[in-house]
Specification:
Blueprint (H helix, E strand, L loop, with lengths): L17 E5 L15 H6 L1 H7 L3 E4 L3 E2 L11 E5 L6 H13 L3 E6 L9 H9 L11 E2 L22 E3 L5 E3 L14 H16 L4 E4 L36 H13 L6 E4 L6 H5 L9 E2 L2 H4 L5 H15 L7 E3 L8 H4 L3 H13 L4 E5 L20 H5 L43 H4 L6 H14 L10 E2 L6 E6 L3 E6 L5 E4 L3 E5 L9 E4 L3 E6 L1
Parallel strand pairs: 1-2, 1-13, 2-5, 5-9, 9-10, 10-11, 12-13
Antiparallel strand pairs: 3-4, 6-8, 7-8, 14-15, 15-16, 16-20, 17-19, 18-20
The protein binds alpha-D-glucopyranose.
The site of alpha-D-glucopyranose has 10 residues, from loops.
Amino acid sequence: MTPQHNVTPATDWWRDAVIYQVYPRSFADGNGDGMGDLAGIRSRLPYLRDLGVDAVWLSPFYASPQADAGYDVADYRSIDPMFGTLPDAEAVIREAHRLDLRIIVDLVPNHCSDQHEWFRRGLAEGPGSTARERFHFRKGRGENGEEPPNDWESLFGGPAWTRVPDGEWYLHLFAPEQPDFNWEHPAVQDEFRSILRFWLDLGVDGFRVDVAHGLVKAPGLPDMGHGEQLKLLGNQVLPFFDQDGVHDIYRSWRAVLDEYSGDRIAVAEAWTPTAERTALYLRSDELHQAFNFHYLNTGWDAAALREAIDSSLDAMRPVAAPTTWVLSNHDVVRHRTRLGGGLDRARAATLLMLALPGSAYLYQGEELGLPEVTDLPDEVRQDPSFFRDTGQDGLRDGCRVPIPWSGQQAPYGFGDGGTWLPQPADWAGLSVQAQTGDPGSTLELYRAALALRRTHPGLGAGETVEWLAAPEGVLAFRRPGGLVCTVNVTEAPARLPAPGRLLLSSRQLDASQDDFVLPADTALWWEE
Ligand code: GLC
């Protein structure tokens, strides 16, 4: 295999990088079948370069029956035909590097697909076979083993165990089509180091590690003892999450990453009870970053935001890892809708995030100000939690609707066919084409903000923010290089002295006077 050339070598590029999440199904469709694909992604890489991001994280595109939109992997080294071929993936990596973009791929080590060769072999070879040892097969409880082996619940609802025809049960923390690997087994450990090398050899710059906190289960698989149903990706203390044994795995992965030149990284999706527990994944011989879900879950409240910012920075300091920031991804309600204040609030939240020290993760379509699609008919939904849960909570199709590129009606330039989830009839004005060149558009705001992050590296630098005096409900802080960010987190205008020259505003306003009015849900960047 020919190693791809790397982008401009830069040590620690990831420490203040802006990383854009592409959800391959919904980004761009190159072959007109209604499903996004690698050819579509490749054709839109120049758009991402011009947007000004540093790296692109691709959600899974591996061979998969798609029981959980590709997070059920049947073969970690091949591409699902719906997304293209391995040469297509190599072409995306090569083309991205040519454009000075880095590529991070998703790695799903907690579970595979029930169609993975190892699991099929385990089913076929029956109880007591060595093939079953790579998963968690157990006899059931009850007189005839008719009860699950313990009381664990799937994060998608229902029991975390499924019984197979020979009477044994297997563990799946997610859908029944996603059996959990047994990470105590050396073959599992070896296989994943080999998968890491496979993708590193192809030139990827890093991995996003799915359910990084879930790989190791408490010895003996003790009952979790609970009353209430688990919420998707909760952060309780649980016998299947955040066990100390996971750290040995990440140490061995770090050794593999460090064998390669070019600062290859891994970012953990780790839900843990505290930020201090998350920091353990980021010790210098483990992973590089973790998503900051505490920040994502913080509401639009000045005191809560300030606390989340300070505590996130404090928690990472002992391990010298950069803090990350994220507002949207493929598992949560888009922040324009979630924060409850419409587009103005979403834009202010983005400028606040992009002024914080560390690395920021963007989710495709947030730069267009897309709202959550809340009225998808039940018959088009594909999220497995929809089929297992009784409530509407935690449904994830509404943030996965294909994004609009151009034109007046669906599929808005997404491709030449339809779209796997229907797009709203009123998205024409939100398309890339409609927003390009309009200085008031959300897309141009993101472009301007990301351009300023490049010309003013102080915006992403350092490990602290210097808080400045500000009226109640307003956040004001100074960043290295004399940059000041002011954000009005209240629903009423606030009056404050102008700290300098206005660089960027999340909404149009007249700030020429010394003492100016900062409207509700507005963020400003200043140069002192
Ligand atoms: C992660 C992914 C989510 C997926 C789950 C199971 O949380 O982000 O989309 O359903 O893992 O793989």
